[in-house]
Amino acid sequence: MVKKSNTMIILTHVLGWIAGFLGPLIIYLTSENAEVKKHAKEVLNWQFSMIVYMSAAAILMFTIILIPLSVITFVALFILNIVFPIIAIVKASEGKVWKYPLSIPFFKI
Predict the structure, then answer these.
(1) Cβ proximity of 48 and 104 under 8 Å
(2) How far apart are CA 20 and CA 26, in angstroms?
(3) Which of 32, 43, 74, 97 sits CB 3.0–4.6 Å from 16 for a disulfide?
């Protein structure tokens, strides 16, 4: 049986996967549970990091020579944005906080 807080934690990671930073931000602002807020911060750090990384890859598109690097970066980020949330969802279902690799710490955990 999954506890209600675990359900919210898992939902936070799923919403980060589906809705970007908006879903976890809403959960962070409305939740009173410290554990849920901790997971929401992790997801927000990852989603904001993805915005930074995608922006950098988009800037690379403006240079003719770096277009192949930009395409490779977009593909890698797309794959990471699928794999990392799945790992985080599995860890959250086990009751653990998983720090997304490569995430920039915008929010202190």
Answers:
(1) yes
(2) 11
(3) 43
Q: What is the DSSP string of 25-75?
A: HHHHHH---HHHHHHHHHHHHHHHHHHHHHHHHHHHTTSSTTHHHHHHHHH
How many CB atoms neighbour CB 9 within 10 A?
A: 31
Lowest mean per-residue pLDDT among 11-20, 36-45, 56-65, 91-100: 56-65
Q: Which residue has the tokens 């020579």?
A: 65
- How far CA 48 is from CA of 23, 25, 33, 43, 100, in Å, comes to 13, 11, 22, 9, 12
CA gap 36, 51 in Å, rounded: 22
